[in-house]
From TrEMBL:
One of its GO terms (molecular function) is sulfuric ester hydrolase activity. Residues 561-583 have a biased composition (Basic residues). Its cofactor is Ca(2+). This is Arylsulfatase family member J. Belongs to the sulfatase family. The gene is ARSJ. Residues 557-600 are annotated as: Disordered. It holds the Pfam family Sulfatase.
Length: 600
């Protein structure tokens, strides 16, 4: 039986049991005080949860074994939690009205990353995390991988889980993949994960796990390893379901053996859906999208609490490194907030690429600190491989840096620049030109780069407003309208000192043309190393109706090299064989919401 909410907490670990040291003669006199202390401890101890009656059920469900030996693996357990579309403001310690006690506590006891960058949309952030390479070096410079495209993360890139497996790690992924699946070789289990449970696409219904990419292009999107997970088609909210799977993985794994766990939650990406009980604390939020978003984030916060509890319960926590990150900025039209940063998801303004992030671990040397050094999502690849005592091949040109000493010890970051992106096929800026780029760069091209304190943007950076919290209330849009900036002013180049002006309010491109030229030259240097863009057209064979009602691999090599039949007899035999196959497949149809699939 499924627990309520976002998966109930696991039973408290044996190390939390109260052992009263008093003598036998004092036991009677102090019994009342003992009980009171125990109750107080249980209430105040972080992470005990509110659903005590469910603990026994969870223990039985997970098949919990006795507490393992305290002998820890020399390699740390690596837990990477990726939230989806969480805005920069949308965490308690950034001043949000949304309550996130778990994230606040984990961050306060760890290291907050306050100069941390990701990419503005889903696929690019995920590809850079798992390869340690910029988009220009994987061909994924443009947009996202769409479910109908014959495209995926290039197969010649060694992924993070593959490198960790080389040094003895068990690797598990739970949640959203969004790195392509048109061929079986693109699936998570073929890219280094021992197990995979989650979705392949970028979004979908949180309860039914169905996704329509366009009219008539609908299908089921929940997988266990390489097969559709029909057994889980029972209406469980995905945040809860993913947390339960994480608990099961931890319950069955020996903590003396190193573990890499990549948890890519679907929340808080649209559609805006959440279990009813999470709305209780947000009835005062007038804006319905913001209210739903708040409920989703509260559910996610509780889920991460339960993941952390499971790490403690099953003996992993003391040797674990927990990394938390959003994949991009929030989308105000879908309830997210990046205030006071400029812009939103899908843009190269700070609101699209500056992310919530922190590291929590008993292994940190400087706990309870704030890191303001430059860190990028590509840095996790070499950092985690180094922590795992792995090796990075000398011929692999990475864009990430090992930043563990920066985070753990407060040392200077080895990173001094970030190529946010160069997208040669994005809509060109009408006013951009080589002349505007001093003959160094065509400023019609969408690009963005950070070098030390300076940030340069060219082309069309995207929606550029500042969206204050008032826009989500009933106070009216006057303040919001006053913050709007029109890009139809003939501009195609912007320069900001992000350290002094993190909100990008003062464009310095005319004041410092020399710095503009330096950054344009750096862009040009990066562009010389770029590989061709991979963004193929839609393939009609991707339609789930042709694949048993499921989104999944559809591409086969014989599509490319189809040999003609030698004679009519062979044609007739093949036609008869195909007809029998179709009759067999049509014997057990299961049609739902206009989409037919086959369970088998």
């Amino acid at each position: 039986m499924a627990s309520r909410g976002c998966a109930g907490p696991p039973p408290p670990p044996p190390s939390q049991a109260w052992v009263w040291p008093g003598k036998m003669l004092a036991m009677g006199a102090l019994a009342a005080f003992w009980v009171l202390s125990l109750l107080t401890y249980g209430y105040l101890s972080w992470g005990q949860g509110l659903e005590e009656e469910e603990e026994g059920a969870l223990r039985a469900q997970s098949g919990e074994r006795p507490e393992p030996s305290t002998t820890a693996a020399s390699q740390p357990h690596l837990i990477f939690i990726l939230a989806d579309d969480q805005g920069f403001r949308d965490v308690g310690y950034h001043g949000s009205e949304i309550k996130t006690p778990t994230l606040d506590k984990l961050a306060a006891e760890g290291v907050k990353l306050e100069n941390y960058y990701v990419q503005p949309i889903c696929t690019p952030s995920r590809s850079q995390f798992i390869t340690g390479k910029y988009q220009i070096h994987t061909g994924l410079q443009h947009s996202i991988i769409r479910p109908t495209q014959p495209n995926c993360l290039p197969l010649d890139n060694a992924t993070l889980p593959q490198k960790l497996k080389e040094v003895g790690y068990s690797t598990h992924m739970v949640g959203k993949w969004h790195l392509g699946f048109y061929r079986k070789e693109c699936m998570p289990t073929k890219r280094g994960f021992d197990t995979f449970f989650g979705s392949l696409l970028g979004s979908g219904d949180y309860y039914t796990h169905y996704k329509c990419d366009s009219p008539g292009m609908c299908g089921y999107d929940l997988y266990e390893n390489d097969n559709a997970a029909w057994d889980y088609d029972n209406g469980i909210y995905s945040t809860q379901m993913y947390t339960q799977r994480v608990q099961q993985i931890l319950a069955s794994h020996d903590p003396r053996k190193p573990l890499f766990l990549y948890i890519a939650y679907q929340a808080v990406h649209s559609p805006l859906q959440a279990p009813g009980r999470y709305f209780e604390h947000y009835r005062s939020i007038i804006n319905i999208n913001r209210r739903r978003y708040a409920a989703m984030l509260s559910c996610l916060d509780e889920a991460i609490n339960n993941v952390t509890l499971a790490l403690k319960t099953y003996g992993f926590y003391n040797n674990s490194i927990i990394i938390y990150s959003s994949d991009n900025g929030g989308q105000p039209t879908a309830g997210g907030s990046n205030w006071p940063l400029r812009g939103s998801k899908g843009t190269y303004w700070e609101g699209g690429i500056r992310a919530v992030g922190f590291v929590h671990s008993p292994l940190l040397k400087n706990k309870g600190t704030v890191c303001k050094e430059l860190v990028h999502i590509t840095d996790w690849y070499p950092t985690l491989i180094s922590l795992a005592e792995g090796q990075i091949d000398e011929d692999i040109q990475l864009d990430g840096y090992d930043v563990w000493e920066t985070i753990s010890e407060g040392l200077r970051s080895p990173r001094v620049d970030i190529l946010h992106n160069i997208d040669p096929i994005y809509t060109k800026a009408k006013n951009g030109s080589w002349a505007a780029g001093y003959g160094i760069w065509n400023t019609a091209i969408q690009s963005a780069i950070r070098v030390q304190h300076w940030k340069l943007l060219t082309g069309n950076p995207g929606y550029s407003d500042w969206v204050p919290p008032q826009s989500f209330s009933n106070l009216g849009p006057n303040r919001w309208h006053n913050e709007r900036i029109s890009l139809s002013t003939g501009k195609s180049v912007w320069l900001f000192n992000i350290t002094a002006d993190p909100y990008e309010r003062v464009d310095l491109s005319h004041r410092y043309p020399g710095i503009v030229k330096q950054l344009l030259r750096r862009l040009s240097q990066f562009n010389k190393t770029a590989v061709p863009v991979r963004y193929p057209p839609k393939d009609p064979r991707s339609n789930p109706r042709l694949n048993g009602g499921v989104w999944g691999p559809w591409y086969k090599e014989e599509y490319k090299k189809k040999k003609p039949s030698k004679n009519k007899a062979e044609k007739k035999r093949k036609k008869s064989k195909t007809k029998k196959k179709q009759q067999k497949a049509g014997a057990f149809p299961n049609c739902r919401s206009g989409v037919c699939h086959y369970r088998g």
